[in-house]
Amino acid sequence: MTKLIDGKQVANDLKVQIASSVKKLIALGITPGIAVILVGEDPASQIYVRNKQRAAEQLGIDSELINLPTTTSEAKLLAKIDQLNANPAIDAILVQAPLPAHINEERVQSAIAPEKDVDGFHPQNVGALYNNAKSYYPQANTPRGIMTLLAEYMPDLVGKKALVIGRSILVGRPMMAMLNNADATVTLAHRHTQDLDQLIATADLIVVAVGEPHFLKMSAAKADAVVIDVGINRLEDGSLVGDVLDDMPDSAQLLTPVPGGVGPMTIAMLMQTTIELARQHSTFE
Ligand SMILES: Nc1nc(=O)c2c([nH]1)NC[C@@H]1CN(c3ccc(C(=O)N[C@@H](CCC(=O)O)C(=O)O)cc3)C=[N+]21
């Protein structure tokens, strides 16, 4: 096998630290609280949201699930967000993506108070990331989780050739910014990219967030490449596969598995960001 990066293990270690941070905060009279809004009944979203609730519960973080019907109007969703913005018990607000087509995601992301924006999607926080701001701001949790894995498995990113495939708001764009802030040389590839094979063959690090099973074969990458598979594709038989096919059984390459790689890290980082926001709020009072 290609060497696997154990995201589940790193996430569990992180959760132990987070649990002890939560205990300290509670002793100071601060109970971190997260509100998760789910619009509709998409089964995959329900699984992710349940995983988030379970993690919060395990760590002693207050969590509130707000499940709104698919037909909820944008105005009603925005009103709910305003209410949570004004609620001092809530430190973190997450609106699960994707939203139904009649709701404008941009308006929703901008409506969440930047200091409660646990996903880091508010334009103010995106701008801070883009500019590598020195003061605290929340950062998107999936790419942040990937940076945490890299700190352990690829500690020297300076000057490395990093290839990010996919440019979503959730993963590709913030990933590009974080790798840039870490002094890697970043290429952002997408559906119109030409000569992608050449970019893949020369990259030291490849982050694949495309949403297509077997989009990337490990044999197409360098012999010592580090590959991060962000894909979560559920096949018809119910099994879960990533975007990467490991066709290099005995290579020196490193790969994150699906499941057990990036997914658990996303959840752990979400909890970490929640307690950071709670700490920020306590110093404002
Ligand atoms: N506002 C918002 N913030 C998000 O962070 C967000 C979102 N919307 N929409 C959907 C994506 C996806 N996402 C995942 C989180 C955990 C796993 C996870 O726990 N994965 C497990 C497997 C879970 C399973 O069995 O399906 C694993 O990879 O081992 C996967 C995917 C967060 N997202």
TrEMBL record:
<dbReference type="Pfam" id="PF02882">
    <property type="entry name" value="THF_DHG_CYH_C"/>
</dbReference>
<protein>
    <recommendedName>
        <fullName>Bifunctional protein FolD</fullName>
        <ecNumber>1.5.1.5</ecNumber>
        <ecNumber>3.5.4.9</ecNumber>
    </recommendedName>
</protein>
<keyword id="KW-0511">Multifunctional enzyme</keyword>
<comment type="similarity">
    <text>Belongs to the tetrahydrofolate dehydrogenase/cyclohydrolase family.</text>
</comment>
<feature type="domain" description="Tetrahydrofolate dehydrogenase/cyclohydrolase NAD(P)-binding">
    <location>
        <begin position="141"/>
        <end position="281"/>
    </location>
</feature>
<dbReference type="InterPro" id="IPR036291">
    <property type="entry name" value="NAD(P)-bd_dom_sf"/>
</dbReference>
<feature type="domain" description="Tetrahydrofolate dehydrogenase/cyclohydrolase catalytic">
    <location>
        <begin position="5"/>
        <end position="119"/>
    </location>
</feature>
<comment type="function">
    <text>Catalyzes the oxidation of 5,10-methylenetetrahydrofolate to 5,10-methenyltetrahydrofolate and then the hydrolysis of 5,10-methenyltetrahydrofolate to 10-formyltetrahydrofolate.</text>
</comment>
<dbReference type="InterPro" id="IPR046346">
    <property type="entry name" value="Aminoacid_DH-like_N_sf"/>
</dbReference>
<keyword id="KW-0560">Oxidoreductase</keyword>
<dbReference type="InterPro" id="IPR020630">
    <property type="entry name" value="THF_DH/CycHdrlase_cat_dom"/>
</dbReference>
<keyword id="KW-0554">One-carbon metabolism</keyword>
<keyword id="KW-0378">Hydrolase</keyword>
<dbReference type="InterPro" id="IPR020631">
    <property type="entry name" value="THF_DH/CycHdrlase_NAD-bd_dom"/>
</dbReference>
<dbReference type="InterPro" id="IPR000672">
    <property type="entry name" value="THF_DH/CycHdrlase"/>
</dbReference>
<feature type="binding site">
    <location>
        <position position="232"/>
    </location>
    <ligand>
        <name>NADP(+)</name>
    </ligand>
</feature>
<keyword id="KW-0368">Histidine biosynthesis</keyword>
<keyword id="KW-0486">Methionine biosynthesis</keyword>
<comment type="pathway">
    <text>One-carbon metabolism; tetrahydrofolate interconversion.</text>
</comment>
<keyword id="KW-0028">Amino-acid biosynthesis</keyword>
<keyword id="KW-0521">NADP</keyword>
<comment type="subunit">
    <text>Homodimer.</text>
</comment>
<feature type="binding site">
    <location>
        <begin position="166"/>
        <end position="168"/>
    </location>
    <ligand>
        <name>NADP(+)</name>
    </ligand>
</feature>
<keyword id="KW-0658">Purine biosynthesis</keyword>
<dbReference type="InterPro" id="IPR020867">
    <property type="entry name" value="THF_DH/CycHdrlase_CS"/>
</dbReference>
<dbReference type="Pfam" id="PF00763">
    <property type="entry name" value="THF_DHG_CYH"/>
</dbReference>
